[in-house]
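ok so for the tutorial part 2 we go from a plain amino acid sequence to predicted structure tokens. step 1 is just haveing the sequence, like this:
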Amino acid sequence: MCLRQLKYAGLFEAIRIRKSGYAYRFALDYFVQKYHLTCPTKGLEEKQECEAILAHLEAKSNGQLLPADWRVGRTKVFLKSKSARLYLEEARNEAIMNHVVIIQSFFRMGLAKIHTFAAKYEVMKKKKEAMRKAKEEVRNERHFGPTDEHISHSHPHPNPG
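step 2 — the prediction. this is what the tokens look like for a chain of 161 residues:
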């Protein structure tokens, strides 16, 4: 009875995995959620996605992550060594930093555009105001004739004194 309970609880499986040297275990969904930024995979099942992530990282690891260091089971990903786990974390941190840089560049580009458009808007606003004043002066001259300023500048007084 006790052996059956241990078997169904998965204790024997856990002992077998520990003996084979896979000290680190992650649920498939957790692994995908945590490391999906390191490898572009879309539309795959969780198990296939985990395998794709690990194979991608293994290919670019320069020997830091070996095929013997990891296995993908039915429900979990198993890692043997601490160095393999640390490599995964380094790759994840690098991917996060790359995404942060991209996001920052978009925000900086947006701010630059806002400042550029604001400066252009100010110039356009000043030109529009100057044109409005010029039109207003022309309209006033038509209705009321030239002002004293225009007369004094265009026709000098015969008796300046």
